[in-house]
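Kindly inspect this one:
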Amino acid sequence: MRVHLLSTAVAPLGSGLGGGVEHMVVVAARQLHALGYPTQVIAPAGSVADVPELLALPGRLAPTAVTTDHTAPPPLEADAFLVTALRWLAHQGQPDDVVLNFSYDWLPLCASDLLPCPLGSLISMGALNRSLTWEIRRIAVHHPRRLAFLSTAQVASFGLTGPVRLIPPGLDLERYRYNVHPRRSFCWLGRIAPEKGLEDAFAFAARTGLAVTAFGAMQDPAYWSELAQRYPAAPVRYGGFPRMPALAEALREFRALLMTPKWLEAFGIVGIEALACGTPVIAYRRGGIGDYTRDGETGWLVKPDDVDGLGAAAERIDRIDRANCRALVEQRYTLARYGAALADWLRALTDSTEART
């Protein structure tokens, strides 16, 4: 068996613009390789990743589903990266191969009926596009083994009620040093883009006077500039886009991580990265964040879009035992658990009964 991991189509690996999917793809490749599976990552041209084998293919990048209208038809560009990648798999894939698709797109889901080998999709976002949601629901009924999700809240957004496979990401805990004595105030981590809700972190800082350091890929510089002009007195600074291990070293120094998404965050891997360092999370009760942010134990959940609620939670943040934050990640979000879950999914995808349906 050879495993092909189809990466996100919105950006090259290593750019940071693919969000947590980049982490999941790279770690999946390493874990499956360590478990004895010959593994190849297929990603857009320009990708850089420390994986056993990387096949970078040309093609037009896909627009992110976050910024497209819910009713918009799926883009079908003849020169798209996904078209190039799926054509390669159709010609080069063998019947005993398996494709694990991490791209949130209609095309790989549809192609799972047509390739010479099984294709499973790890769905990385909630219900954002009508056509894609319809396809996910169809596969959930007829080929449920082909789907895996990150959180229960994400599954609910598609209206799925039957049993599903959950495969949340895992972390290399040796790279995240636990810290019981933070020295700095609050931080925010994510792509600098409107759907991530950075404006609420600015508003929080302006109302409370508490300093916030924002980290992440500068996807939308105009958005950052607009916020800086709207909140000139807010104690918010941009901390750049640190990579590991600098990211973990930064996260461990803060009292808490703010998570303020304006959309249904399917999981939010930055949350467990903070918890791994002992840094609790203050987040909106929106999406999969609630799977690991437990009120009074690993942080506080706030009513969505309630900036005053963020401030009230910040006043209570020192009640959180930072050891509980680290312990939760050690129990649920390790590399070993992630790799084992992926290997179990591979076995399900290659089961002879699934191949005949």
Q: What stands out?
A: Residues 173-332 form a domain with the Rossmann fold fold (CATH 3.40.50.2000). The radius of gyration is 20 Å.
